Amino acid sequence: MEAHSRMAKLGPYLLFDGVCAEAMTFYKSCLGGELSITTVGDSPMNAGVPPEQQGKVVNARLQSGAIDISASDWLHLSRTPRQGNTVCLYISEGTAVELNEYFGKLSEGADPAVLDPLVEMPFGLYGALTDRYGVRWMFQGQK
After folding, report:
1. Rounded Cα gap, residues 79 and 85, in angstroms
2. pLDDT in the model for residue 1
3. Domains of the chain
4. pLDDT tens-digit profile of 1-22?
5. Three-state SS for 19?
6. H or E element that contains 20
7. How far apart are CA 45 and CA 24, in angstroms?
8. By CB count within 10 A, which of 4, 43, 107, 114 is most buried?
9. Is the whole-model pTM more than 0.85?
10. Burial 73-100 (b: 16+ CB within 10 A, else e)
């Protein structure tokens, strides 16, 4: 296995239908720790996003000891949130090489209707897929 200065991490990613900030604030009150919340309007993604989406959460992260939960509001306008696609396995902080390798292998047999190719975004590398077993995966890594 290749040595990396920073290894990818695996954790849960929760998707909410407009109540992400409220839910993550509740989880912080239960679990303690540090909570960071970024809205669409406060992010580099704000250009071209409809006004009604600007207040939605693009990224929230709660860290408390070994607990590390990431979340956002549902922002994919052409898809509908439903039970089963609102909890993901989230691979983060990896290098482009790592993420491309994991993404390539996990996308074999993936549902092409719910595949977001691994691409460069204002916040770094991003992609998502639903694998051949119906498990949703999200990827976010270094620029």
Report:
1. 10
2. 43
3. 9-141 (3.10.180.10)
4. 444 456 888 889 999 888 899 9
5. coil
6. helix 20-31
7. 21
8. 107
9. no
10. bbeeeeeeeeeebeebebbbbbbeebbb
